Amino acid sequence: MLEDQIIKLEQYLKELKEKRSNVNAAHACFDIGNVLVQVNLEVFTKELKKVIPPNHDPMFFLEHLQATQDIGLSTVQQALRAQHDIFEQEKVQILLEAWNATIEPNETMLKFLENLRSEGVKMALLSNIGLEHANHLKKTIPDLFLNMIHHLSFEVGARKPSKIYFQSFLLDHPNFLGSIYADDRDENLKSGKKYSFKTFKFCLDELMLMPLSKQRKELDKLKSYILDGKYNCLPGKF
What we know:
The chain is an alpha/beta fold. It folds into two domains: 2-38 and 104-232, HAD superfamily/HAD-like (Rossmann fold, 3-Layer(aba) Sandwich), CATH 3.40.50.1000; 41-100. The chain contains twelve helices and seven strands.
């Protein structure tokens, strides 16, 4: 039953792709973490170590948390209670604040998005993200979501690099078939390419290590690719 549905979905996507042989270059999709905002888990892991048993690995907790909260099965608070019996509100609040602090706004990329909007580019956010981080971003960096289509994993119930994640996005937004898609993770790019995206690897941390003149050059190049559709010239990574 499920296999039949998947086959039908794949056939439908194939037909849509054939109808759109001339891809609209003014469409682009972006991951959020380490592409549009910087991510630093150090503060959270430091606070977590203070409240969990010494023999517990905070990275194990993080992996479990991201696997469940990304598809809407849990929140940070629920995971803390389930795995470590952390119910004290003061401790929970400290950890939630530390969790939100793992995301750092990046003015360079916010200005880049604003510039793309001024050029009429249609954009979408394709992100593995949980409820807390999404709410925090919408509250603290509202411009990140301005005139953006949101395809967030906790709302979709699936995460990249799964078939369901990409197929559900393209079924809802067929105009993005063949559009540019930027992500920092190889497995997501590999899967995205299967579903018509012209993928490239973009790591914000690497961009920020470049001199300002080189940053501007690379972003101008990316803007040109998005507007002109010169996909064959895309670098493997920045």
